Retrotransposon gag domain-containing protein
Amino acid sequence: MEKLANCRKFGGYPHENAALFIADFESYATLHNISPLDDNRIIAALHLHLTGPALTWFNSLSSENKASWEAIVHLFNDKYVDLDWQNPTVMLDSEIFENMSLSSGQSIDDFYCQLVEKANTLKKPDHEIAGNHRDSPSALAAAKMGEAYGYRKAELQVAAASKQAKPSDKRDSEFASLQSQIDTLTKAVQNLTASKTDESTKQNRRTDRFAYSLQQATNPPQATNSRQQATYLPQATNNLCFNCSSPNHIKRYCNWNGQGVSSSDITCQLCDQNGHSAVNCERLSGN
């Protein structure tokens, strides 16, 4: 038989109107000569018009419940038409409906559609949708009239916007005090770390100098001739001379007379020490 009309499918979602669907489906069945007394045929037609959670619900029914159209309609009404106000979904939809308000920049027609959709789901009477108006169409007309006269101007929206709460002075002072304490502790830790590093460096230098002196006293170098004895200079490769700030010798054996320029790049031609030239060598003045 040629299909005369279509019937929209039902998914069982909260925004869908279950009562309207079952009424449309019964009209669809009548139009296609599907008798309510023919249980198998009308139940099969309903099965083809269910999707999503509603189809899952139908498939979970027992064979006994699926054998009678009256039983199917009764279970469908219990599930989707008769509201259970203790159901979390219904409670959430009711709370959303009670707190719906026109957003800035939102079209009144769009807001009206959302409001009516929630009201139909919750089976709200028309006067709850319309507020103080007699019906919802007159409420929509009044709202559009107000919009036409410019009550939703930008400057009014700014004036009506809620002000952000400023933190109290006490909270600011407590935060500033905590920040000051944190800064003080940070500086103290940095100073303590720096002082420990300096002390460790000085201690290492004293230890190296003591070890070098002890080594020289215990194992003096052997010279093969008088010139080697005269020109031999102990070297400390790990320390700088405190007199000329040059490597490979210490202040005790430094031959710089304190005059002229001292640089680690200069090598004396008389004593082979780094840090001074032959002109500023004590050996030159001694000769």
Q: What stands out?
A: The first strand starts at residue 263 and ends at 267. Residues 18-81 form one domain. The chain has twelve helices and two strands. Residues 156-161, 223-237 have pLDDT under 50 and may be disordered.
